Batch of 4 targets.
Target 1
Amino acid sequence: MTFDSKQFLSSVSTSPGVYRMLDEQSNTLYVGKAKRLKARLASYFRGQLNTKTQAMVGRIADIQVTVTRTETEALLLEQTLIKQLRPPYNILLRDDKSYPFVFVTDRHSYPALEYKRVRQRSDDGRYLGPYPSSGAVRESLALMQKYFESAIVKIVSLPTVHVPVCSIKFSAVAPLASIISLLKIISATLNTP
């Protein structure tokens, strides 16, 4: 079965988003992002391509597109899908450093929020994100501190971690559900240009 690029491109959105190129067995070959999906995807089917890209395009049986609200959302979704699916034609982001998350745990008598960069999530709490930058995480944590006035901020440098860990601990008057709800609102605001 040959992929009909002209028919496909006639219905693709011009919005930002993420695309997954699939082979005949529905295995993901490549995950990419675009500010304008139609223009980016059209570039694969015209002009000169390097040998590796030509080989990949020759194996395409289908392309799945996810439209996002912003280019930042597309970047974060692309990074998540590459780490999850490990497509053979994505070599740069698979082993690259991870994006930062806010880690929420209730392993103490009151919830704690921490800045974390993770390659694999563990089951010891909730990971909110990923965020586009460490500055966005720190801004979220600062807003949480302002909202919950009883918050105590503590920067801890661990011997095995090269980046300081920012931890915010809250009193019992700030239930975990409230913290997570507020953090999602802050995160959505920071991820919108």
Target 2
Amino acid sequence: MSYEPPSYGSPPPPPGGGYGAPPPPPGGGYGAPPGGYGGYGAPPPGYGGQPTSTSTLGIVSLVAGILSIVCCFCYGIGIVPGIAAVITGVMSRKEIAQSGGAKTGSGLALGGLITGGAGIALSVIGWIIVLVFGAIDYTTY
């Protein structure tokens, strides 16, 4: 008895004979593309519909809030942009909530609310310091 090792040559031919053209796809071809977005079905997620935009009031709120903190110790002028930041921040968050996802910038509006409130508080503290220490006359001692 003789042992013959397996052959590692070319692979065996496919079932059904030699190497010819592949069989046609089942069902008679691909057919017509489904209707919808450009004839290719539904659009991918995140595409389509109305494009989103950033709320202008949110940007105004954040800028006014930062300005109120910068100006809070300049004779208390930070109260004015602080109030503007709080008002526009509230208006912006309401506008974004009612837009149904068409507007973004809720974080900007929240940042404006926080910095505006901080600017108002620091301005009031600045006025209190000026009134308390400004009323004392140190020249008579």
Target 3
Amino acid sequence: MIAIDIREKLHEYIDTSDEKLLKLMLALAKEYNDDDDIEFSAEEIRLLDERHEKYLKGETTLHTWEEVKKAILDKGNR
């Protein structure tokens, strides 16, 4: 579906939807547009710094999405 078709379909929903759906769509649009405004607390920043230091020292490892997905799927198949 191309953008123009999506817009037309959304307009149909907007024109016929109830207040609850309109509020949900508005909240989704606001969240999508405001995601640059993420703020971290001092504690969250401290934890991120701590984890970064551990990574730099080789005390922890990172995993790719494929590795994580495989581990989850393998665990579910037991």
Target 4
Amino acid sequence: MSCWNQWRVVTGPWGFYYDGIDHTSLASTMDLLGVKKSKQRSVFMHVRILESEAKPLRNERE
């Protein structure tokens, strides 16, 4: 949840869409939360999986 508001938004003439979580923000958040350096690669890969699942939901239009 700490990175929920850190999604990159791409805009154009068609509107906008959420492209994905800003990876620099993710790294900073892991540091702030005290995630051990040895675990950060694994956490990053898990977040990428969650990101790929969340992306279609964030981009749903009513």
